[in-house]
Amino acid sequence: MSATFRGHDGGVDTSGDGVVNVVLYLVALALFVQLAVRMLQLGPTARRFPVVALAATIAIGVPSLLQLVWPAIGEALRRDPAATLDHAQWWRVLTSIAAQDGGLIASVFNLVVVAVVVTLGEWLWGRWRVLVLFLLPSILLNLLAIAWDAPGGGSSFASDGLLASVCALGLMVSTRMIVRVCALAVMAIGIVLVLLNDAHGVALLVGAALGLAFAIRVRARGPARSIRPTD
What range defines the domain where residue 27 resides? Predict the structure, then answer.
């Protein structure tokens, strides 16, 4: 998870770096992978090359790693409530996804998560949906973080939202018990993180809500075993 900022005066935590928070996040990630793999087993065996996943990993990875050498890159991209509100630098709401905090280890971990989550999400949602469900939670959470006066950056809001959206898809279109249990467990983790004042819980719930909206339309298009939506 991105190491960003702990809200002022005990406010909302956008770092997610507490021991309990990290453990819960890793459990949610493991549950997501289990769910996604089970869902993919019901779909076609031949899958298109994950173009969006590759593009997202490169687009986020290059500036994330370069900022370790040239910190000015991170400063120009990161979420900055004062600069956004006082100087209309609203692009930071989007570009902060590529401003990883926490050093090399955190950056590499977040990029691996992006590659895995977007690849599985792309195979299940399709290309344009996965792009929307990856970027929109990040934008919404960064807008909230500005309201919370929390500077920082990272791709975890985007990854959280997308993985929760896939869980919502599984809950709606799959009849397999293991898929539904994993999906409900991820959403429960999101609620627990919210209760812990962790913004990543909000990202999970936002992603689940968006995924539910998309999944309702997908479910209306065919039988439950038609897991993978078509573009």
Answer: 8-219
The model's pTM is 0.89
Q: Is residue 117 part of a domain?
A: yes
* CATH number of domain containing 176: 1.20.1540.10
Cβ neighbours of residue 139 under 8 Å, at least 6 residues apart?
93, 94
Residue 20 counted as domain residue = yes
Give me the tens of pLDDT residue by residue for the chain, a chain 231 residues long.
543 434 443 467 777 778 899 999 999 999 999 999 999 987 766 689 999 999 999 999 999 999 999 999 989 999 999 999 999 999 999 999 999 887 888 899 999 999 999 999 999 999 999 999 999 999 999 999 999 999 999 999 999 999 999 999 999 988 899 999 999 999 999 999 999 999 999 999 999 999 999 988 776 665 544 445 434
Asked if residue 147 is part of any domain, the answer here is yes
- Give the chain's domain count: 1
| Residue 190 counted as domain residue | yes
